[in-house]
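Let's practice the habit of predicting before peeking. Look at the sequence and jot down your guess about where helices and strands might fall. Then scroll down.
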Amino acid sequence: TSWEDRFHICFSLVQLLHYLAHSPLGSVTLLDFRPRQFVIVDGELKVTDLDDASNEETFCTSNRDCFMEFPARNFTLPCSVDGKCQSMNEKRNLYNAYRFFFTYLLPHSAPSTLKPLLDAVVNATG
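Done guessing? Here is the structure:
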């Protein structure tokens, strides 16, 4: 697959992530976020399995309740005044996109002029 095709897949994923973060149902997280849960239809990435999707934000009483642990990095998000971890669904989707897609699809065989930018993006996320 060409780098341009891989970039298009990542761009399509970014559009999907934006939709999930701002959907009519509220922010939706994909709890089973793995490559096998996606297909490409007419050049666009689509989710195939929504059984493990949720629009429930995690409840909290303090920022300690909003701790997210991933293999390479951990995050603590703010607990909002209404007792929900702010943007946890969005952050979970974004980090999983980084883990399973961006790190494999973007850096390899990228145009040399884009490598510094891609390195900055990949290093900032992970």
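How did you do? Residues 32 and 52 are 6 Å apart (CA to CA).
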